[in-house]
C-alpha cells in the first residue's frame, strides 16, 4: 500500500492539473505572446513587434484614463462595501445587545440576511438594466421622479461625466454588500460569544466591543474580502458595458481596462494591442493582491 501511495495521488491530480494548464495557464502564455505581435486575428503567423504595443500604451490617453478609474474603484468600492457590510453584519449578529446573558442580533436577523443577499443572486446584466431605469435622466427615472416631487431638476446620473463613475460604483457596492454581510456574519459567528459577554459585563459598549474585539478577531476575513473586492474593481466590464453612455462614456468618463480590451479586440481587431492591455491588467491585479496581503499581514489572534 505504501508503494502505491504516490501513483494513486498522481493519478487523481493529473487530470485536474492538465485541465488547469490547458485552460488557464496556456491562454495566459498565448496572451503574453500575442501582446508582442501586431496580430489582427486574420493571419496565421503574426508579425513579431517586441514591446511596441506596450510603448503605445504609455502614450494612450484612454488607457491612462481607465487606469485612473481603476484607482478610484480600488479605493472607493472596497471601503464602502466593507464599511456597510461590517455595519449590517454587526447589527445582525450582535446589534440586539445582551438578552438573558447572551449577545444577540436585531430582531428578524435571518430575514434581513436573505434580503441583503438577494442582489447577489441577480445576474449582472439584470442589475444593469434595473439601474438603467433607476438612473434615467428625466422624471421617468426612479430617483429623478422622487427628486421632482421636491422641485429638484432631473440629474444626469450616467450622462454627467463628473458623477457617472460614482453612479456605477454605487451599483457595484449595492450588488456586493450582501455577499460580504454573509461572509462577515460567518466570521462573527465563529467568535466565542463568551468574549462579548465578558466585555459587556465589564461595561464595554457596542462601539468599544466592535473596535476592540470584533474588528481584530475578524481581520483575516477582512483581508480576504479586501482582496476579492480589489480584483472585482479591476473588472467592472459588465456593469460599465450596460450602464455607461456609449460604452465607457460620456467622454471616456467611465471606461475601464476590460472594456478597452474588448473594444480593441472585437471592434478594431487589434488583438496584439488588446493583449498588451490584458498583460498590463494581469500584472496590476497580481501586484495589488500581493501588496494588500503584505501590508495588511499581522499576527494571527487565537481564540
UniProtKB/TrEMBL annotation:
InterPro entries: ABC_transporter_permease, MetI-like, MetI-like_sf. Residues 67-292 form the ABC transmembrane type-1 domain. GO terms for biological process: transmembrane transport. It is a multi-pass membrane protein. It is found in: Cell membrane. Its main location: membrane. PROSITE patterns: ABC_TM1. The chain crosses the membrane at residues 7-29, 71-93, 114-135, 163-186, 207-229, 271-293. Keywords: Cell membrane, Membrane, Transmembrane, Transmembrane helix, Transport. Pfam families: BPD_transp_1. The keyword Membrane applies. GO terms for cellular component: plasma membrane. Belongs to the binding-protein-dependent transport system permease family. This is N-acetylglucosamine transport system permease protein. It comes from Thermopolyspora flexuosa.
